[in-house]
Amino acid sequence: MTEYKAMTENERDRLNRAALDAIDEACEARRRFACFNSPHEGISVIREEFEELWDEVKLKQHSGTAMRKEATHLAAMALRFIVDLT
Ligand SMILES: [Mg+2]
Asked: Which protein residues have a CB closer than 5 Å to ligand 1 (ion)?
């Protein structure tokens, strides 16, 4: 069985930064758009953000900045799904 090491402090700092970025994005989206009205609406928006991330991943020349931006959007919409619908 594979054993994994605990996160380093640097990894934990990066994780916190990513989570805060996703929360900021979810707050900004909430200022511009109403809450999700249904699980179907929420999953449609999540799928749209997933597809935008997938488009970046499929590029031959990956851009870390562009992938991070789209991954943050995806995480933000997942957070909105949790907050608005559960
Ligand atoms: Mg996006």
From this structure: 52, 70, 73
Confidence (pLDDT) at 30: 94
Q: Tell me, in angstroms, the distance from the centre of ligand 1 to residue 11's CA.
A: 24
Tell me the pLDDT tens digit for each residue of 25-60: 999 999 999 999 999 999 999 999 999 999 999 999
Ligand 1 centroid–CA 73 distance in Å is 5
Does residue 41 lie in a domain region? Answer: yes
pTM of the model: 0.92
19 within some domain: yes
- Kindly write down the DSSP assignment for every residue of 21-82, as one continuous string: HHHHHHHHHHHHSPPP-SHHHHHHHHHHHHHHHHHHHHSSS--HHHHHHHHHHHHHHHHHHH
2 lies in some domain: no
Q: How many domains does the chain have?
A: 1
